[in-house]
Design a protein that fits this description.
Blueprint (H helix, E strand, L loop, with lengths): L7 H11 L2 H7 L1 E7 L8 E7 L5 H13 L3 E7 L2 H18 L10 H13 L15 H8 L2 H4 L4 H15 L2 E8 L4 E7 L2 E8 L1 H14 L11 E9 L2 E12 L2 E9 L8 H4 L3 H11 L4 E6 L6 H12 L6 E5 L10 E5 L8 H8 L6 E4 L5 H12 L3 E6 L4 H10 L4 H7 E13 L5 E4 L2 H6 L7 E4 L5 H10 L11 E12 L2 H9 L3 H12 L4 H10 L5 H8 L3
Length: 552
Protein backbone atom coordinates (compact mmCIF):
# COMPACT_ATOMS: atom_id res chain seq x y z
CA UNK A 1 0.00 0.00 0.00
CA UNK A 2 1.35 3.39 -0.91
CA UNK A 3 1.66 6.05 1.76
CA UNK A 4 0.23 8.52 -0.76
CA UNK A 5 -3.23 7.07 -0.19
CA UNK A 6 -3.59 8.65 3.21
CA UNK A 7 -2.68 11.96 4.85
CA UNK A 8 -2.67 13.23 8.41
CA UNK A 9 -5.87 15.11 7.57
CA UNK A 10 -7.68 12.04 6.24
CA UNK A 11 -6.62 9.98 9.26
CA UNK A 12 -7.64 12.70 11.68
CA UNK A 13 -11.10 13.08 10.13
CA UNK A 14 -11.75 9.34 10.24
CA UNK A 15 -10.52 9.05 13.82
CA UNK A 16 -12.76 11.95 14.88
CA UNK A 17 -15.76 10.59 13.02
CA UNK A 18 -15.68 6.95 14.10
CA UNK A 19 -13.27 6.39 17.00
CA UNK A 20 -11.08 8.38 19.38
CA UNK A 21 -7.39 9.10 19.29
CA UNK A 22 -6.83 7.56 22.72
CA UNK A 23 -8.72 4.41 21.82
CA UNK A 24 -6.68 4.00 18.64
CA UNK A 25 -3.44 4.39 20.61
CA UNK A 26 -4.53 1.89 23.26
CA UNK A 27 -5.50 -0.74 20.70
CA UNK A 28 -2.85 0.06 18.02
CA UNK A 29 -5.54 0.56 15.41
CA UNK A 30 -5.83 3.42 12.92
CA UNK A 31 -8.25 4.17 10.03
CA UNK A 32 -6.15 5.27 7.04
CA UNK A 33 -8.42 6.35 4.23
CA UNK A 34 -11.78 5.84 2.56
CA UNK A 35 -12.01 3.95 -0.71
CA UNK A 36 -15.07 4.63 -2.82
CA UNK A 37 -17.09 1.69 -4.07
CA UNK A 38 -19.79 1.18 -6.65
CA UNK A 39 -21.64 -1.29 -4.47
CA UNK A 40 -25.28 -0.32 -3.80
CA UNK A 41 -26.25 0.70 -0.23
CA UNK A 42 -22.58 1.24 0.64
CA UNK A 43 -20.85 4.53 1.35
CA UNK A 44 -17.42 3.03 0.77
CA UNK A 45 -14.67 0.95 2.36
CA UNK A 46 -12.48 2.22 5.22
CA UNK A 47 -8.96 0.80 5.26
CA UNK A 48 -8.05 -0.04 8.86
CA UNK A 49 -4.44 -0.67 9.88
CA UNK A 50 -3.90 -2.95 12.88
CA UNK A 51 -0.59 -3.86 14.55
CA UNK A 52 -1.52 -7.26 15.92
CA UNK A 53 -3.63 -9.60 13.80
CA UNK A 54 -4.05 -11.95 16.74
CA UNK A 55 -6.18 -9.20 18.35
CA UNK A 56 -8.41 -8.95 15.30
CA UNK A 57 -10.95 -11.49 16.58
CA UNK A 58 -11.58 -9.31 19.63
CA UNK A 59 -11.72 -5.92 18.02
CA UNK A 60 -13.05 -6.54 14.51
CA UNK A 61 -16.78 -6.80 15.30
CA UNK A 62 -17.09 -3.53 17.29
CA UNK A 63 -15.27 -1.71 14.48
CA UNK A 64 -17.46 -3.27 11.78
CA UNK A 65 -20.63 -2.43 13.72
CA UNK A 66 -19.53 1.16 14.31
CA UNK A 67 -18.70 1.73 10.64
CA UNK A 68 -21.78 -0.18 9.51
CA UNK A 69 -24.07 2.31 11.28
CA UNK A 70 -22.89 4.91 8.74
CA UNK A 71 -23.07 2.54 5.77
CA UNK A 72 -19.34 1.83 5.54
CA UNK A 73 -17.54 -1.47 5.25
CA UNK A 74 -13.96 -2.04 6.38
CA UNK A 75 -10.87 -3.95 5.37
CA UNK A 76 -8.01 -4.72 7.72
CA UNK A 77 -4.33 -4.54 6.86
CA UNK A 78 -1.35 -5.21 9.10
CA UNK A 79 1.16 -2.47 9.84
CA UNK A 80 3.98 -2.31 12.38
CA UNK A 81 3.41 -0.83 15.81
CA UNK A 82 5.87 1.97 15.12
CA UNK A 83 4.10 2.84 11.84
CA UNK A 84 0.74 3.10 13.55
CA UNK A 85 2.13 5.23 16.38
CA UNK A 86 3.77 7.55 13.83
CA UNK A 87 0.50 7.92 11.88
CA UNK A 88 -1.43 8.68 15.06
CA UNK A 89 1.17 11.27 16.09
CA UNK A 90 0.72 13.01 12.73
CA UNK A 91 -3.08 12.93 13.19
CA UNK A 92 -2.69 14.38 16.68
CA UNK A 93 -0.54 17.22 15.34
CA UNK A 94 -3.07 17.88 12.60
CA UNK A 95 -5.84 18.05 15.19
CA UNK A 96 -3.85 20.51 17.27
CA UNK A 97 -3.07 22.71 14.29
CA UNK A 98 -6.64 22.72 12.97
CA UNK A 99 -8.23 23.20 16.37
CA UNK A 100 -11.04 20.83 15.31
CA UNK A 101 -13.29 18.77 17.60
CA UNK A 102 -12.51 17.54 21.06
CA UNK A 103 -10.74 14.25 21.58
CA UNK A 104 -11.76 11.59 24.02
CA UNK A 105 -8.38 11.65 25.73
CA UNK A 106 -9.48 14.93 27.35
CA UNK A 107 -11.35 13.92 30.45
CA UNK A 108 -12.73 17.11 31.85
CA UNK A 109 -15.93 19.08 32.08
CA UNK A 110 -15.54 20.57 28.61
CA UNK A 111 -15.17 17.14 27.03
CA UNK A 112 -18.29 15.78 28.72
CA UNK A 113 -20.25 18.91 27.83
CA UNK A 114 -19.25 18.52 24.21
CA UNK A 115 -20.43 14.91 24.16
CA UNK A 116 -23.70 15.89 25.87
CA UNK A 117 -24.14 18.73 23.40
CA UNK A 118 -23.70 16.34 20.51
CA UNK A 119 -26.31 14.09 22.08
CA UNK A 120 -28.88 16.87 22.48
CA UNK A 121 -28.28 18.06 18.93
CA UNK A 122 -28.99 14.57 17.66
CA UNK A 123 -32.16 13.98 19.63
CA UNK A 124 -33.60 11.61 17.04
CA UNK A 125 -30.84 9.12 17.67
CA UNK A 126 -32.24 5.91 19.13
CA UNK A 127 -30.46 4.03 21.89
CA UNK A 128 -30.62 0.27 21.64
CA UNK A 129 -30.40 -1.69 24.87
CA UNK A 130 -30.51 -5.16 23.41
CA UNK A 131 -28.63 -8.14 24.79
CA UNK A 132 -27.57 -11.34 23.09
CA UNK A 133 -28.41 -14.22 25.41
CA UNK A 134 -26.18 -16.59 23.48
CA UNK A 135 -23.02 -14.50 23.77
CA UNK A 136 -19.96 -16.36 25.01
CA UNK A 137 -19.03 -15.43 28.61
CA UNK A 138 -15.34 -15.09 27.79
CA UNK A 139 -16.20 -12.75 24.92
CA UNK A 140 -18.45 -10.72 27.21
CA UNK A 141 -15.62 -10.32 29.70
CA UNK A 142 -13.13 -9.28 27.01
CA UNK A 143 -15.37 -7.11 24.82
CA UNK A 144 -18.44 -5.57 26.36
CA UNK A 145 -16.74 -4.77 29.64
CA UNK A 146 -14.12 -2.70 27.84
CA UNK A 147 -15.23 0.89 28.24
CA UNK A 148 -13.09 2.05 25.30
CA UNK A 149 -15.04 -0.16 22.91
CA UNK A 150 -18.36 0.70 24.54
CA UNK A 151 -17.80 4.43 24.02
CA UNK A 152 -17.66 3.83 20.26
CA UNK A 153 -21.29 2.77 20.17
CA UNK A 154 -23.20 6.05 20.52
CA UNK A 155 -22.74 9.64 21.56
CA UNK A 156 -24.65 9.21 24.83
CA UNK A 157 -22.50 6.19 25.71
CA UNK A 158 -19.45 8.29 24.96
CA UNK A 159 -20.76 10.97 27.33
CA UNK A 160 -21.54 8.37 30.04
CA UNK A 161 -18.10 6.83 29.62
CA UNK A 162 -16.48 10.23 29.95
CA UNK A 163 -18.36 10.92 33.19
CA UNK A 164 -17.08 7.64 34.65
CA UNK A 165 -13.51 8.11 33.45
CA UNK A 166 -13.40 11.73 34.60
CA UNK A 167 -14.47 10.65 38.09
CA UNK A 168 -11.56 8.21 38.36
CA UNK A 169 -9.04 10.55 36.78
CA UNK A 170 -9.96 13.37 39.16
CA UNK A 171 -10.37 11.21 42.29
CA UNK A 172 -14.06 11.92 42.78
CA UNK A 173 -15.61 9.62 45.38
CA UNK A 174 -19.26 10.14 44.33
CA UNK A 175 -21.19 11.36 41.29
CA UNK A 176 -24.67 12.88 41.82
CA UNK A 177 -26.94 13.23 38.78
CA UNK A 178 -29.82 15.37 40.00
CA UNK A 179 -33.03 16.21 38.11
CA UNK A 180 -34.35 19.74 38.31
CA UNK A 181 -37.42 21.36 36.77
CA UNK A 182 -35.33 23.08 34.10
CA UNK A 183 -32.75 20.34 33.53
CA UNK A 184 -30.15 18.11 35.20
CA UNK A 185 -27.20 18.97 37.43
CA UNK A 186 -24.16 16.79 37.92
CA UNK A 187 -22.35 17.34 41.19
CA UNK A 188 -19.32 15.42 42.42
CA UNK A 189 -17.75 14.83 45.80
CA UNK A 190 -14.01 15.38 45.93
CA UNK A 191 -11.98 15.09 49.10
CA UNK A 192 -15.25 14.88 51.01
CA UNK A 193 -16.71 18.15 49.67
CA UNK A 194 -19.55 18.45 47.13
CA UNK A 195 -18.92 20.66 44.10
CA UNK A 196 -20.72 21.56 40.89
CA UNK A 197 -19.50 19.70 37.82
CA UNK A 198 -21.89 20.56 34.98
CA UNK A 199 -25.50 21.15 33.94
CA UNK A 200 -27.54 19.96 30.97
CA UNK A 201 -31.05 20.16 29.58
CA UNK A 202 -33.67 17.55 30.51
CA UNK A 203 -33.62 15.33 27.41
CA UNK A 204 -29.90 14.47 27.46
CA UNK A 205 -30.06 14.20 31.26
CA UNK A 206 -32.81 11.57 31.06
CA UNK A 207 -30.85 9.75 28.37
CA UNK A 208 -27.66 9.84 30.42
CA UNK A 209 -29.39 8.33 33.47
CA UNK A 210 -31.00 5.65 31.25
CA UNK A 211 -27.63 4.79 29.74
CA UNK A 212 -25.94 4.51 33.15
CA UNK A 213 -28.84 2.40 34.47
CA UNK A 214 -28.38 0.05 31.55
CA UNK A 215 -24.65 -0.18 32.22
CA UNK A 216 -25.48 -1.01 35.87
CA UNK A 217 -27.95 -3.73 34.71
CA UNK A 218 -30.93 -1.94 36.24
CA UNK A 219 -34.44 -1.92 34.83
CA UNK A 220 -34.44 1.20 32.64
CA UNK A 221 -38.24 1.09 32.28
CA UNK A 222 -38.73 1.33 36.06
CA UNK A 223 -38.62 4.99 37.11
CA UNK A 224 -40.95 5.02 40.11
CA UNK A 225 -39.05 2.69 42.44
CA UNK A 226 -35.56 2.83 43.94
CA UNK A 227 -32.94 0.55 42.41
CA UNK A 228 -29.38 -0.52 43.13
CA UNK A 229 -26.80 -1.78 40.70
CA UNK A 230 -23.12 -1.94 39.88
CA UNK A 231 -21.09 -0.85 36.86
CA UNK A 232 -17.97 -2.91 36.23
CA UNK A 233 -15.79 -1.88 33.31
CA UNK A 234 -12.20 -1.92 32.14
CA UNK A 235 -10.35 1.07 30.75
CA UNK A 236 -6.72 1.31 29.68
CA UNK A 237 -6.05 -2.00 31.42
CA UNK A 238 -7.54 -0.84 34.75
CA UNK A 239 -10.72 -2.09 36.42
CA UNK A 240 -13.36 0.59 37.05
CA UNK A 241 -16.10 -0.18 39.56
CA UNK A 242 -19.09 1.97 40.48
CA UNK A 243 -21.93 1.29 42.95
CA UNK A 244 -25.15 2.85 41.62
CA UNK A 245 -28.34 3.90 43.34
CA UNK A 246 -31.46 5.58 41.96
CA UNK A 247 -34.39 7.15 43.77
CA UNK A 248 -37.52 8.73 42.22
CA UNK A 249 -37.96 12.43 42.94
CA UNK A 250 -40.29 15.27 42.10
CA UNK A 251 -38.61 16.03 38.76
CA UNK A 252 -37.31 12.56 37.85
CA UNK A 253 -34.80 9.96 38.93
CA UNK A 254 -31.82 11.01 40.97
CA UNK A 255 -28.78 8.79 40.49
CA UNK A 256 -25.73 8.51 42.72
CA UNK A 257 -22.63 6.57 41.74
CA UNK A 258 -20.03 5.68 44.36
CA UNK A 259 -16.58 5.26 42.84
CA UNK A 260 -15.03 2.10 44.28
CA UNK A 261 -11.29 1.60 44.39
CA UNK A 262 -10.85 -2.16 44.20
CA UNK A 263 -7.04 -2.07 44.29
CA UNK A 264 -5.86 -2.93 47.80
CA UNK A 265 -2.20 -3.41 46.89
CA UNK A 266 -1.11 0.01 48.19
CA UNK A 267 -3.03 -0.16 51.48
CA UNK A 268 -0.79 0.02 54.51
CA UNK A 269 -1.43 0.99 58.12
CA UNK A 270 1.93 2.77 58.21
CA UNK A 271 0.74 5.23 55.57
CA UNK A 272 -2.83 5.53 56.88
CA UNK A 273 -2.16 6.14 60.60
CA UNK A 274 0.55 8.80 60.89
CA UNK A 275 0.99 8.91 64.68
CA UNK A 276 3.14 6.00 65.80
CA UNK A 277 1.62 5.52 69.27
CA UNK A 278 -1.91 5.21 67.83
CA UNK A 279 -0.71 2.86 65.10
CA UNK A 280 1.16 0.68 67.63
CA UNK A 281 -1.85 0.44 69.96
CA UNK A 282 -4.19 -0.39 67.09
CA UNK A 283 -1.86 -3.18 65.98
CA UNK A 284 -1.85 -4.53 69.53
CA UNK A 285 -5.65 -4.88 69.67
CA UNK A 286 -5.99 -6.20 66.09
CA UNK A 287 -3.49 -8.95 66.98
CA UNK A 288 -5.69 -10.20 69.81
CA UNK A 289 -6.57 -13.89 69.62
CA UNK A 290 -10.27 -13.16 70.05
CA UNK A 291 -12.74 -10.35 70.66
CA UNK A 292 -14.20 -7.55 68.56
CA UNK A 293 -12.35 -4.65 66.97
CA UNK A 294 -14.66 -1.83 65.86
CA UNK A 295 -13.90 0.89 63.31
CA UNK A 296 -16.50 3.67 63.45
CA UNK A 297 -17.33 6.86 61.61
CA UNK A 298 -19.88 8.32 59.21
CA UNK A 299 -20.31 7.22 55.58
CA UNK A 300 -17.23 7.99 53.50
CA UNK A 301 -14.84 8.32 56.45
CA UNK A 302 -12.48 5.58 55.25
CA UNK A 303 -13.60 2.72 57.52
CA UNK A 304 -13.43 0.07 54.78
CA UNK A 305 -9.97 1.27 53.76
CA UNK A 306 -8.62 0.95 57.31
CA UNK A 307 -10.08 -2.52 57.75
CA UNK A 308 -8.77 -3.67 54.36
CA UNK A 309 -5.27 -2.56 55.38
CA UNK A 310 -5.63 -4.36 58.73
CA UNK A 311 -6.79 -7.61 57.14
CA UNK A 312 -4.01 -7.54 54.56
CA UNK A 313 -1.59 -7.30 57.47
CA UNK A 314 -3.32 -10.22 59.19
CA UNK A 315 -3.14 -12.33 56.01
CA UNK A 316 0.07 -14.23 56.72
CA UNK A 317 -1.01 -17.53 55.22
CA UNK A 318 -1.58 -19.32 58.54
CA UNK A 319 -5.04 -17.91 59.29
CA UNK A 320 -8.47 -18.44 57.75
CA UNK A 321 -9.91 -14.97 57.11
CA UNK A 322 -13.50 -14.59 55.87
CA UNK A 323 -15.42 -11.39 55.16
CA UNK A 324 -19.05 -10.40 54.64
CA UNK A 325 -19.27 -7.08 52.78
CA UNK A 326 -21.92 -4.87 51.16
CA UNK A 327 -20.47 -4.27 48.63
CA UNK A 328 -16.96 -5.69 48.29
CA UNK A 329 -14.97 -2.48 47.87
CA UNK A 330 -11.45 -3.91 47.78
CA UNK A 331 -10.22 -7.09 46.15
CA UNK A 332 -7.82 -8.06 48.92
CA UNK A 333 -6.45 -11.17 47.23
CA UNK A 334 -4.07 -13.44 49.14
CA UNK A 335 -5.81 -16.04 51.30
CA UNK A 336 -8.72 -13.79 52.26
CA UNK A 337 -12.16 -15.21 51.38
CA UNK A 338 -14.59 -12.42 50.54
CA UNK A 339 -18.37 -12.86 50.35
CA UNK A 340 -20.87 -10.21 49.24
CA UNK A 341 -24.15 -9.69 51.08
CA UNK A 342 -27.19 -10.56 48.95
CA UNK A 343 -30.37 -9.61 50.76
CA UNK A 344 -32.59 -10.76 47.90
CA UNK A 345 -31.36 -14.32 48.55
CA UNK A 346 -31.39 -14.01 52.33
CA UNK A 347 -27.63 -13.56 52.68
CA UNK A 348 -27.64 -10.91 55.39
CA UNK A 349 -24.70 -10.06 57.66
CA UNK A 350 -26.20 -12.10 60.49
CA UNK A 351 -26.90 -15.12 58.28
CA UNK A 352 -23.41 -15.07 56.75
CA UNK A 353 -21.86 -14.77 60.20
CA UNK A 354 -23.66 -17.93 61.33
CA UNK A 355 -22.47 -19.66 58.15
CA UNK A 356 -18.88 -18.49 58.70
CA UNK A 357 -18.80 -20.14 62.12
CA UNK A 358 -19.13 -23.49 60.32
CA UNK A 359 -16.21 -22.57 58.01
CA UNK A 360 -13.43 -22.92 60.62
CA UNK A 361 -12.54 -19.20 60.67
CA UNK A 362 -9.79 -17.48 62.65
CA UNK A 363 -10.65 -13.92 61.65
CA UNK A 364 -14.08 -12.65 60.58
CA UNK A 365 -14.96 -9.29 59.04
CA UNK A 366 -18.56 -8.13 59.23
CA UNK A 367 -18.85 -5.15 56.88
CA UNK A 368 -21.33 -3.29 59.09
CA UNK A 369 -23.12 -3.88 62.38
CA UNK A 370 -26.46 -2.17 61.93
CA UNK A 371 -29.02 -4.27 63.84
CA UNK A 372 -29.36 -6.18 67.14
CA UNK A 373 -29.20 -9.59 65.42
CA UNK A 374 -25.83 -8.86 63.79
CA UNK A 375 -24.48 -7.30 67.00
CA UNK A 376 -25.48 -10.33 69.09
CA UNK A 377 -24.06 -12.78 66.55
CA UNK A 378 -20.76 -10.86 66.48
CA UNK A 379 -20.51 -10.96 70.29
CA UNK A 380 -21.20 -14.70 70.29
CA UNK A 381 -18.50 -15.26 67.66
CA UNK A 382 -16.00 -13.25 69.69
CA UNK A 383 -16.82 -15.19 72.86
CA UNK A 384 -16.20 -18.52 71.11
CA UNK A 385 -12.58 -17.70 70.31
CA UNK A 386 -12.76 -15.74 67.04
CA UNK A 387 -11.37 -12.33 66.22
CA UNK A 388 -14.11 -10.19 64.68
CA UNK A 389 -13.66 -6.90 62.81
CA UNK A 390 -16.67 -4.72 62.07
CA UNK A 391 -17.72 -1.16 61.28
CA UNK A 392 -20.28 0.99 63.01
CA UNK A 393 -21.88 4.31 62.13
CA UNK A 394 -21.13 6.51 65.12
CA UNK A 395 -19.65 9.94 65.79
CA UNK A 396 -16.91 8.92 68.22
CA UNK A 397 -15.27 5.92 69.82
CA UNK A 398 -17.27 6.21 73.04
CA UNK A 399 -20.60 6.76 71.26
CA UNK A 400 -19.92 3.50 69.40
CA UNK A 401 -20.23 1.65 72.70
CA UNK A 402 -23.47 3.48 73.47
CA UNK A 403 -24.77 2.50 70.04
CA UNK A 404 -24.14 -1.17 70.80
CA UNK A 405 -25.93 -0.82 74.13
CA UNK A 406 -28.88 0.71 72.26
CA UNK A 407 -28.92 -2.48 70.16
CA UNK A 408 -29.66 -4.38 73.39
CA UNK A 409 -26.14 -5.77 73.76
CA UNK A 410 -25.73 -6.55 77.50
CA UNK A 411 -22.99 -4.63 79.32
CA UNK A 412 -21.26 -7.85 80.40
CA UNK A 413 -21.05 -9.04 76.78
CA UNK A 414 -19.71 -5.67 75.67
CA UNK A 415 -17.01 -5.74 78.34
CA UNK A 416 -16.11 -9.33 77.57
CA UNK A 417 -15.91 -8.95 73.78
CA UNK A 418 -14.86 -5.46 72.66
CA UNK A 419 -11.08 -4.98 72.55
CA UNK A 420 -11.04 -1.47 71.13
CA UNK A 421 -12.82 1.12 69.01
CA UNK A 422 -11.08 3.17 66.31
CA UNK A 423 -13.14 6.22 65.32
CA UNK A 424 -11.99 8.10 62.25
CA UNK A 425 -12.60 10.98 59.86
CA UNK A 426 -10.92 12.14 56.68
CA UNK A 427 -9.36 15.59 56.52
CA UNK A 428 -8.40 17.32 53.30
CA UNK A 429 -4.64 17.63 52.85
CA UNK A 430 -3.44 21.14 52.21
CA UNK A 431 -2.09 21.62 48.69
CA UNK A 432 1.71 21.79 48.70
CA UNK A 433 1.69 23.77 45.47
CA UNK A 434 -0.10 26.91 46.67
CA UNK A 435 -0.44 26.73 50.49
CA UNK A 436 0.52 29.77 52.53
CA UNK A 437 2.45 29.54 55.80
CA UNK A 438 1.33 31.86 58.59
CA UNK A 439 1.99 32.14 62.32
CA UNK A 440 -0.75 30.77 64.55
CA UNK A 441 -2.90 33.38 66.26
CA UNK A 442 -2.90 33.76 70.04
CA UNK A 443 -6.52 32.62 70.27
CA UNK A 444 -5.85 29.53 68.13
CA UNK A 445 -2.73 28.72 70.16
CA UNK A 446 -4.76 28.71 73.38
CA UNK A 447 -7.75 26.80 71.96
CA UNK A 448 -5.70 24.05 70.33
CA UNK A 449 -2.80 23.96 72.80
CA UNK A 450 -0.18 24.89 70.22
CA UNK A 451 2.92 26.91 71.02
CA UNK A 452 2.56 30.61 70.17
CA UNK A 453 4.00 31.86 66.86
CA UNK A 454 4.17 28.31 65.49
CA UNK A 455 4.02 28.50 61.67
CA UNK A 456 1.03 26.59 60.29
CA UNK A 457 -0.34 26.06 56.79
CA UNK A 458 -3.24 28.05 55.39
CA UNK A 459 -5.12 26.78 52.31
CA UNK A 460 -5.21 29.16 49.36
CA UNK A 461 -8.84 28.38 48.51
CA UNK A 462 -10.29 30.48 45.68
CA UNK A 463 -13.84 31.45 44.82
CA UNK A 464 -15.32 30.36 41.48
CA UNK A 465 -14.72 33.87 40.10
CA UNK A 466 -11.09 33.86 41.29
CA UNK A 467 -10.53 30.42 39.77
CA UNK A 468 -11.86 31.62 36.40
CA UNK A 469 -9.61 34.68 36.50
CA UNK A 470 -6.53 32.65 37.44
CA UNK A 471 -7.32 30.17 34.69
CA UNK A 472 -7.42 32.98 32.11
CA UNK A 473 -4.14 34.35 33.45
CA UNK A 474 -2.64 30.83 33.45
CA UNK A 475 -1.73 31.24 37.13
CA UNK A 476 -4.15 28.66 38.55
CA UNK A 477 -2.47 26.03 40.73
CA UNK A 478 -2.35 22.87 38.63
CA UNK A 479 -2.25 20.57 41.65
CA UNK A 480 -5.50 21.58 43.35
CA UNK A 481 -7.11 23.79 40.65
CA UNK A 482 -7.81 26.50 43.20
CA UNK A 483 -9.44 24.43 45.94
CA UNK A 484 -6.45 24.80 48.25
CA UNK A 485 -6.50 21.10 49.10
CA UNK A 486 -5.30 17.96 47.38
CA UNK A 487 -5.95 14.46 48.71
CA UNK A 488 -7.04 13.38 52.20
CA UNK A 489 -5.46 12.16 55.41
CA UNK A 490 -7.10 10.29 58.29
CA UNK A 491 -7.60 11.54 61.82
CA UNK A 492 -8.16 8.81 64.40
CA UNK A 493 -9.41 8.29 67.95
CA UNK A 494 -8.49 4.93 69.49
CA UNK A 495 -10.36 3.81 72.60
CA UNK A 496 -8.77 0.77 74.24
CA UNK A 497 -11.37 -1.09 76.30
CA UNK A 498 -9.29 -1.98 79.38
CA UNK A 499 -10.40 -2.61 82.97
CA UNK A 500 -10.94 1.10 83.71
CA UNK A 501 -13.20 1.53 80.68
CA UNK A 502 -15.02 -1.73 81.42
CA UNK A 503 -15.79 -0.59 84.97
CA UNK A 504 -17.00 2.76 83.63
CA UNK A 505 -19.33 1.00 81.18
CA UNK A 506 -20.72 -1.16 83.99
CA UNK A 507 -21.40 1.99 86.03
CA UNK A 508 -23.34 3.53 83.11
CA UNK A 509 -21.08 6.54 82.43
CA UNK A 510 -22.09 8.81 79.57
CA UNK A 511 -20.15 9.21 76.30
CA UNK A 512 -18.52 12.44 77.50
CA UNK A 513 -17.57 10.89 80.84
CA UNK A 514 -16.05 7.87 79.09
CA UNK A 515 -14.12 10.16 76.74
CA UNK A 516 -12.77 12.25 79.64
CA UNK A 517 -11.68 9.08 81.45
CA UNK A 518 -9.95 7.67 78.35
CA UNK A 519 -8.08 10.96 77.75
CA UNK A 520 -6.99 11.39 81.38
CA UNK A 521 -6.24 7.78 82.30
CA UNK A 522 -5.23 6.21 78.95
CA UNK A 523 -3.80 9.25 77.14
CA UNK A 524 -6.29 8.82 74.32
CA UNK A 525 -6.03 11.39 71.53
CA UNK A 526 -9.44 12.68 70.45
CA UNK A 527 -10.23 13.22 66.77
CA UNK A 528 -9.53 16.94 67.22
CA UNK A 529 -6.27 16.39 69.10
CA UNK A 530 -5.04 13.96 66.45
CA UNK A 531 -6.01 16.47 63.75
CA UNK A 532 -4.00 19.20 65.52
CA UNK A 533 -0.94 16.93 65.39
CA UNK A 534 -1.45 16.67 61.62
CA UNK A 535 -1.59 20.48 61.47
CA UNK A 536 1.78 20.61 63.22
CA UNK A 537 3.15 18.29 60.53
CA UNK A 538 1.87 20.71 57.83
CA UNK A 539 -0.49 18.06 56.42
CA UNK A 540 -3.76 19.93 56.91
CA UNK A 541 -5.19 23.18 58.30
CA UNK A 542 -6.89 24.20 61.54
CA UNK A 543 -9.99 25.29 59.64
CA UNK A 544 -10.27 21.79 58.18
CA UNK A 545 -9.92 20.20 61.63
CA UNK A 546 -12.65 22.47 62.97
CA UNK A 547 -14.91 21.74 59.98
CA UNK A 548 -14.65 17.98 60.29
CA UNK A 549 -13.97 17.24 63.96
CA UNK A 550 -15.72 19.96 65.95
CA UNK A 551 -19.08 19.94 64.14
CA UNK A 552 -20.74 18.25 67.10
Amino acid sequence: MSNAKYTSTSVRKLVDKFFSLQWCRDNLVVPLYEEKTSLPMSQGVIKIAIANYSYLGTIANPIKERLGQSGFKCEFIERSQSDIQEILDLASEERFISGDSIEISQFDEDAVLEAIKETSENSDEEISFEFDDDIDEAKLEENSLDLSIEMMESKIQKAAGMVLITSRRNDYSDIHIEPREEGYNIRVRKDGVMQKFMSMSRKPGIRLVACLKNMAEMDIAERRASQDGKILRKFEGNKLEFRCSTVPGKHGEKMVLRVLNSDASALNLDTLIHIESVRKNFRNIMNSTNGIVIVSGPTGSGKSTTLAAALKEKDTGDTNIVTAEEPIEYDMGGDINQVEVNRAKGQTFAMLLRTFLRQDPDVILIGETRDPETAESSMDAAETGHLVFTTLHANSSTSSLTRLLDMDVPKYKLNASVRGVLAQRLLRKVCTGCAIKRPISDMEAIEFNIKKNTPIMHANSLTAKEKAERKKENTLCQKCLGSGYKGRVGTYELLIVDRKIQNAISKGLTDRELEKLAVEENSMLTLTQYGVELVKENLTTLSEVVRVCKSD
